[in-house]
């Protein structure tokens, strides 16, 4: 009996392992496809094709398209906030904004989709964007409070300090086709935007 | 090893990031009460919503809704 149970258990755990791998693979391929074709326009059939699985396999792992989209966006949010935290922890305003640009540049195509299509997406996707912004505003506000007290930067309301920066970066990202056709926007303009912004806020 | 705060999602690396500076804790310094216990759902929701209003300028109710949505993803509050 024990022996049979043992034999039986092996393929089961193999199957589970495989299932997990397929799921992970689907999320990765969906991430790339959504960055390429857009969060609204990408079809599950295209994701299946890119992942090299049947269309039905996608729905064996995710009951609906929205469920897959939410999973990909959540996964993305977790990765970006982790990266921002890694890069930005405890630095000056200058260092934090530099880290912010660096973190975004690593995920620019997908992040741009999220910025452009955010208001059309399910609520969970918008919440992820706010979560990413919260990771940035958390580090920025801590550094800004220190530097305002030290007279390094001007005393400005925290939300406007943050939104002025985000507004600038997002405007360039959302119109990347005009600012930097076919090439990453932040690589080309990041330094200029950062220097300009620091000039505005410096006391 | 880096942990993620179960109550707000903040990555915790240094002892100072943890509640009471204790890396064995699963929640961060910002989610702890003064006595070291973890804040309640309502306390955390209030502080998160206020933080979003203060640092990002969102409408109060919109910030509260977003905070609820974010918290629903975290192990401490997941249903």
UniProtKB/TrEMBL annotation, chain A:
Residue spans binding DNA: 43-62
Keywords recorded for this protein, A-Z: DNA-binding, Transcription, Transcription regulation
Cross-referenced Pfam families: TetR_N (PF00440)
Region (Disordered): 1-22
HTH tetR-type domain segment(s): 20-80
GO molecular function ontology, one term from the record: transcription cis-regulatory region binding
Statement: the UniProt record of this protein carries the keyword Lipid biosynthesis: no
InterPro entries (UniProt xref): Homeodomain-like_sf, HTH-type_TetR-like_transc_reg, HTH_TetR
PANTHER family per the UniProt record, alphabetical: HTH-TYPE TRANSCRIPTIONAL REGULATOR BETI (PTHR30055:SF234), HTH-TYPE TRANSCRIPTIONAL REGULATOR RUTR (PTHR30055)
Name of the protein: HTH-type transcriptional repressor
Organism name: Pelotomaculum propionicicum
From TrEMBL, chain B:
InterPro entries named in the record: Zn_ribbon_dom_put
Domain Putative zinc ribbon: from-to ranges: 4-78
Pfam families from the UniProt entry: Zn_ribbon_2
Protein name: Putative zinc ribbon domain-containing protein
Protein's organism: Pelotomaculum propionicicum
């Amino acid at each position: 009996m024990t022996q049979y149970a043992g034999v039986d258990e092996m393929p089961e755990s193999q199957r589970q392992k495989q299932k997990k791998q397929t799921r992970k693979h689907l999320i990765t391929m969906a991430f790339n496809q959504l960055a390429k074709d857009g969060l609204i326009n990408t079809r599950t059939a295209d994701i299946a094709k890119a992942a090299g699985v049947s269309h039905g396999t996608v729905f064996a792992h995710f009951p609906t398209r929205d469920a897959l989209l939410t999973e990909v966006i959540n996964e993305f949010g977790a990765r970006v906030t982790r990266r921002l935290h890694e890069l930005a922890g405890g630095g000056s305003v200058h260092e934090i904004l530099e880290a912010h640009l660096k973190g975004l540049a690593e995920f620019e195509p997908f992040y741009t989709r999220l910025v452009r299509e955010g208001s059309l997406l399910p609520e969970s996707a918008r919440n992820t964007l706010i979560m990413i912004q919260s990771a940035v505003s958390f580090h920025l506000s801590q550094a800004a409070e220190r530097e305002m007290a030290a007279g390094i930067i001007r005393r400005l309301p925290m939300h406007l300090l943050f939104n002025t920066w985000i507004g600038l970066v997002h405007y360039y990202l959302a119109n990347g086709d005009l600012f930097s056709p076919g090439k990453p926007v932040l690589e080309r303009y990041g330094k200029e935007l950062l220097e300009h912004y620091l000039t505005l806020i410096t006391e | 090893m880096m942990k993620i705060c179960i109550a707000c999602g903040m990555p915790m690396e240094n002892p100072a990031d943890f509640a009471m500076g204790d890396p064995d804790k699963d929640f961060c310094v910002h989610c702890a009460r003064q006595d070291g216990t973890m804040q309640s759902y309502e306390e955390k929701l209030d502080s998160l919503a206020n933080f979003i209003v203060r640092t990002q300028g969102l409408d109060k109710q919109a910030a509260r809704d977003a905070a609820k949505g974010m918290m629903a993803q975290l192990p401490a509050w997941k249903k």
